[in-house]
Amino acid sequence: MFYLLNCFIQMKILLSNNDLNEALYDVSNLGFVPTMGSLHNGHISLIKKSLKDCKKTIVSIFINPTQFNNKNDFENYPKNNKKDLSILKNLKINFLYMPKAKDVYDYERKSPIRLRKKDKILCAKFRKGHFEGVIDVMERLTKIIKPQKIYLGEKDFQQLFLVKKYNPKKYKAKIISCRTIRNKNKLAFSSRNKLLSKKQLKIAEKISKEVFFLKKKLSKSRNIKKLLSDKKKRLTNLFNIKFDYLELRNTSNLKISNKVKNSRLFVAYHINKIRLIDNF
Q: Do 124 and 70 have their domain in common?
């Protein structure tokens, strides 16, 4: 049985795999936007891209427990289903998939996902098991939904990189990378931003501006390592934050780079207990 939300086109809300299989039985040229809800302008840009490219678009809302290495982080992850439904209604998507954990984890893997040693960098170093959970759930959702295209944002570039690398080719889903969407103060839109107070949000915006302009300075620096180290110390003292990393890495393999060309500046830091990531 389908649960329908009346709008200009009929958006079908699929609450089980039976619903999904029935709805997608004869659908081709399907675009898929995976989310954990608490939708923002970044998600909206991915959905609009799918709507433009594909005949049909499906969005999932599923807060995946296996990618959280902190129980409190999982429990406190921002949720607003009412607002999410309103946004998706206005966008006129075709399908919304809101599964339970038993629908996604309906089988046991024959062997666990293991990251290669060279991939245990950046967030993989600081969030043990996080990307194993991401890769697992993306493989499962791809197998269940069988889309032709999957839309992921560059805001979490490492996630995009690893999903592309580890997602089995047998599912033949093309992963489409989409640019990061930012507010006027250079801060990337993120569901976690909603956990910040107004004061903390202003700090995050100032840090984004600092890192954005730092990237421009790196091309003129003869000692990139020292410049990054000095910037970390300055921002730590100025805003009382804790860095996990501030590193320049090559976009093709994520190795540490000493050249700005074909590289991105990756940052992860904590404002109190809220962890934010970005790349420029």
A: yes
